[in-house]
Amino acid sequence: MASATHYGLKEADIFKYYTRKVGTKNIxxxxxxxxxxxxxxxxxxxSWKNELTADRLRIEGHCxxxxxxxxxxxxxxxxxxxxxxxxxxRDRVSHEVxxxxxLPQENGGDRFRIPDLDxxxxxxxxxxxxxxxxxxxFVGRSAILFDLKLYKExxxxxxxxxxYGCPEEAYSTLQARKEHCIAALQTDQEKSFEGAPSSALxxxxxxxxxxxxxxxxxxxxxxPVLVERNPRIPSLSSALNVINIEGKGRSIVATRDIKPGEVxxxxxxxxxxxxxxxxxxxxxxxxxxxxxxxxxxxxCTQVVFCSKACRARGLAEDHWLECKIVTPxxxxxxxxxxxxYKMLKTLxxxxxxKITEELRNETASYSSPESLKGFSPRxxxxxxSYRSVHHLHHNxxxxxxxxxxxxxxxxxxxxxVIEQSGRYFVNALGEAVTPTKEDLVMLSRALVVNADKLYKxxxxxxxxxxxxxxxxxxxxxxxxxxxxxxxxxxxxxxRSMVMYAQLPIKAGEEASxxxxxxxxxAERQDRQKYLxxxxxxxxxxxxxEDWDGVPxxxxxxxxxxxxxxxxxxEEMVCPDCCEVSGRAKEEAxxxxxxLLELLLESPGSLVKGSAASKLEFxxxxxxxxxxxxHMAAPCGAIWVLLAALESWF
Length: 649
Prior knowledge:
Strand content: 5-15%
Number of helices: 21
Helix content: 25-40%
Strand order of the largest sheet: 3-11-10
Number of domains: 5
Radius of gyration: 28 Å
Distance between the termini: 57 Å
Largest sheet: 3 strands, antiparallel
Shape: globular
């Protein structure tokens, strides 16, 4: 049949025809109907590697440089380097690659081969084999870095400029620049990017970001280490376990008492997608940290790396799959579908069919409780295994037909681009083959399901700050259920997610996180409306008792020492309870004195990096424990301390 596009049909028109002829709310029916139309192949995007575009951006950067607007100049040079035709990359991965689906050897499991870094797999040689635009980009960027006194980064760009064959007339300038950098480093005059560039006064005062703010946004932090790992779930502490709770499904509970401030989990994103286009030129596609001097992907214009090590790992893992589709998909505004495709990791179609069949048969004969879905036959749960994401839940059955059909259309367009890439539909020798319509329907269905899993289970990731710009899938974090007054806080750093106890958790209690703003920041009806997008109505204590934000959350309200209900002002026992022992009252009064002293301190003294850091952290955690133990909920004061606690992670 002729393409729907040829007839000028819009998405709404196609859905109307589907409703009349088929009308079922079934993904397979929708996809089979869509693939009756000959989905048009996309042309080579105009935003691909292009020497003329690279030259234009470099000239703009040079104009900003001459005006001493170094921040803008650096942005333009980064874009020029991204757009410039790139030669073959011969990086090698220096780490052992994890298996995609760890299965016992006797069950036919094997290590899925990570593709070799063959020259033709990463865009091949640029048009005409020229690297002039790329080398000139590094020459110009090295000048900006030199003026910013970022000598180490400047030396790296000088080496890259020479490696890619800069013009002979630039050699003398680069040599002199290199000697100055080496001399500055030897005399300890380098200004590392951990602090503000020493050439701050040379930056244009009207730039939106000041040097100190730029430095903070590129800063990396040390990820906390789990002291005692759970042997079955390495991303969690041994203080937590997974069980099945009726009406909630898989849930996390404490196996012992947990105090505020304790690190209870460190998870790594299984996959991700950058949802803010402005972040693309500065976010490393492997570690998800911002980079001041990005290295471009040799095959596309939508991905950068912060180092050669990250580039080697990215090209061998996540980015190998998306390299040939990410540029056209950026034009289609289908980045979430790219993330859905990346959930397949390095699997090709024959491998995906085999694994899907194995897991389907395994699920059909599953005799273990629901809580063990996603665990290997050996009883372990790996966040890097395809098995873990295969068993994540989705909400496709709750979508309206129009929404479901729209997802199917988007998945079909992406499947066509994937077919054109020649990397997914291959034979046993890795050679591209022409897929059948059933193969395309199967891939489209996988994309629809994976996209909905991403929507339901995604969390912000990337560098911590005002604008993360990235969403990731953390399989272990997805075990945690929601509460509007959560006991667990989390904070992302690059591709890692750190989970910590922000309230005391007793042994046997469920540990919960917040999918949305807590009760102190949002009204109940707004919270409920947002959470229905996850497919459930929240029934946590905050919602059941209608805690409704700041107006109804007193700063401090004592709790009865006997029954735990709110007590009269300045009393520690409510009228319905008998008197408690004088010793209990005396201990509670001492606690209150310590707590009030903590609350009266300046908030700045509670933040990490202040004078008595470790001691203040201990006092902060003790204060949260006292508030939780002596103050009736909802309590406004506890959110002040929780905000300070978050800054420590």
